[in-house]
Amino acid sequence: MTSPMRELVISSPRKNALSTSVLDSLRSGLDEAEGEPVLLTGAGDVFSAGLDLNEVAAFVDLDAARRLVGTFERLVEALFTYPGPTVALVNGHAIAGGCVLALCCDHRVATQEPGVRIGLNEVALGLEFPPRTLAMIRAQLPPALAARAVLQAELYDPVAAREAGLVDEVAPEPRAIALARLAALARHPRDAYARAKAALRGDALRLSSTEERRFEEETLPRWASEETRAVARRALGK
Asked: Is 122 one of the catalytic residues?
């Protein structure tokens, strides 16, 4: 008998932007799933356009940046190390932080709609990858593909995103395929799946004390800077 499935839906204004409250809600949903198979998707016709740039543009101090970026990093780690099967149904744009959350999953199925864009465009926007997020990308993609995705910072159509390793499949009926892939993963013995996943991913996202200190002393201040707020305002057209 297969396990019951939990569906986590990214839902917020502005193309399912990832605000602190949305990230907290997703983390709570993941905790409540307790190892059951999880389908991650977006509300409407968008997966997620990434971190809420309105929140970034409104950062007033280091604590504000820590709340958003730290909450995002904790969700990345929780989703990447979640013991049960996870499948991302990429039903529309998956950009920056949205693409990151899809990459955290065990399998990714995207719509074949040609107008959809998928990619890690943080560098093009002038934003810095937080350390656990970058470690997850390195763990999920071969080095050459990780470098291309991060440094070229392109937004791909679904077929090109598959070639770049950002999604595994492109389908005209992606929901049906995503559910089938999740059901197949869920047929494996639950404990064996969790142990194998933990052995494969291990401590990939664990930071050294030096990396933790650099995150606090260098990365977060850059996120909280006026330069980053200006980047967010430009991206928002303000």
From this structure: yes
